[in-house]
Write a structure and sequence with these properties.
Endonuclease III, domain 1, single chain, Endonuclease Iii, domain 2, 13 helices, mainly alpha, 217 residues, 2 domains
């Protein structure tokens, strides 16, 4: 936590938005897509439909045409149209501040609901994306058997008051300093001591490779 606080003292929310609804839309679009790509598409989308009323009025085909550059665009367009109608019909046009209500919306799973609850409403949550799942296993904070298990382990490891901020700090660290491939664990400010077992395994693999080579030690 001390290292992450030093590197990312005030981590911003990476998805551009103006309110809970635009955040919800951006998070739905971010599934299997980069935040950078989402942020390139949402200005056009939000210029046309920044409220549930306007999004529902666009219709699926028009939404899909705007977000076509994003992966799974047809499915996401249906989800955005459907969740907008439900927000209007069931929640008075407002994004509900409830895990249960959010997860009942089309295209919204536990991770998406967790991001909205933490970043839009300030409710403690620890959404686990691929970066966080990978770092938690690498740093031996979780067995990494599933995203759900990783979330439980991280919540147990850190104070609840820090979950929302740590979620963002993990993401930025994973993207900028701790890639999955070709990462020098020995020079990483966290992996150099938190991933000692992983480093030992990699060193053993390198040594075995050397011994297999002709003339290897």
């Amino acid at each position: 936590m001390s290292i992450l606080d030093e590197l990312y003292p005030h981590p911003p929310i990476p998805l551009e938005h103006t309110d809970p609804f635009t955040l919800l839309v951006a998070v739905v679009l971010s599934a299997q897509a980069t935040d950078k790509k989402v942020n390139q598409v949402t200005p056009t989308l939000f210029a046309r439909a920044s409220t549930p009323e306007r999004m529902a009025a666009l219709g699926v085909e028009e939404i899909q045409g705007i977000i076509r550059q994003i992966g799974l665009a047809p499915r996401k367009a249906r989800a955005l149209s459907g969740l907008s109608r439900i927000l209007l019909e069931v929640h008075g046009g407002q994004v509900p501040a409830s895990f249960e209500a959010l997860e009942a919306l089309p295209g919204v799973g536990h991770k998406t609901a967790s991001v909205v609850m933490s970043q839009a409403f300030g409710v403690p949550a620890f959404p686990v994306d691929t970066h966080i799942h990978r770092l938690a296993e690498r740093w031996r904070l979780s067995r990494g058997t599933s995203v759900a298990q990783t979330e439980r382990d991280l919540k147990a490891a850190f104070p609840e008051a820090r979950w929302n901020e740590l979620h963002l700090q993990f993401i930025y660290f994973g993207r900028e300093r701790c890639p999955a491939l070709y990462h020098d664990l020995s020079t990483c400010p966290i992996c150099s001591w938190a991933a000692t077992k992983k480093r030992a395994r990699e060193e053993a693999q390198r040594n075995r490779g050397l011994r297999r080579r002709p003339g290897g030690a």
